[in-house]
Amino acid sequence: MTLSRRLVIALFVLLALSLSANFLVIGFLAGRGFHPGGPPNMMRIVEQGLGGLPPSLRDAVAAELEATQPEMAADLARIREQRRDLVQAIKTEPFDRSRVEAAFAALGDRLEGMRKRGEQAVLRALERATPEERSEIREPRGPRFDDPPPPPPL
Questions:
Q1: Confidence of residue 89 (pLDDT cuts 50, 70, 90)
Q2: What total of structural domains would you count in the chain?
Q3: CATH number of 93's domain
Q4: Looking at the domain assignment, is residue 6 inside a domain?
Q5: Domain containing 54: what range?
Q6: Which of 20, 50, 63, 146 has the most CB atoms within 10 Å of its CB?
Q7: With bands split at pLDDT 50, 70 and 90, how would you rate the model's confidence at 92?
Q8: For residue 7, is it within any domain?
Q9: Beta-carbon neighbour count of residue 118 at 10 Å?
Q10: Domain contains 140
Q11: Reported pTM
């Protein structure tokens, strides 16, 4: 039995469409798995910002932050809202400098509040730390502004 040329082409088109749909679904599911929604992971935040702390202190800071997680999640939601407000203020015509300044100030105040909450969590953990734990604190890794820039890619 031989297949007509038209049938072979139709089968290849169906195969390509099926593969495309499968890759689309797999990509969507993989993307959701790698970028889960929900509240922030406090240990990830601590590791990014306080990589110079020994593990026991990082755990203590993460526990302190976990205790304030509902407030931090609300702050993060409000920051996203204030960023949208800032963009809207910038795009509004005619340009209103005082509105943009107010949006910047509101966003800055919220960010400052979160920074202070994080500092308080670190201070509470440091108060309970032993002198040995505090002696293990080192400068966090990461780029420094006085380091020379990396060489350009070849």
A1: very high
A2: 1
A3: 1.20.120
A4: no
A5: 42-135
A6: 50
A7: very high
A8: no
A9: 19
A10: no
A11: 0.56
What crossing angle do the helices spanning 69-91 and 55-67 adopt, rounded to 10°? Answer: 80
Sequence-distant (≥ 6) Cβ neighbours of residue 125 within 8 angstroms: 57, 60, 61, 63, 64
DSSP states along the chain: ----HHHHHHHHHHHHHHHHHHHHHHHHHHHHHHS--SS--HHHHHHHH-TTS-HHHHHHHHHHHHHTHHHHHHHHHHHHHHHHHHHHHHHSSS--HHHHHHHHHHHHHHHHHHHHHHHHHHHHHHHHS-HHHHHT--PPPS--TTSPPPPPP-
Q: Which residue has the tokens 């505090």?
A: 134
Taking the C-alpha atoms of residue 45 and residue 118, their distance in angstroms, rounded to an integer, is 10
Predicted confidence (pLDDT) per residue in 100-117, tens digit: 999 999 999 998 888 888
Give mean pLDDT, residues 125-154.
Answer: 76
Backbone CA torsion sign across 78, 79, 85, 88: negative
Residue 154 is which amino acid? L
- Residue 27, in any domain of the structure: no
Cα 113 to Cα 82: distance, rounded to the nearest angstrom: 14
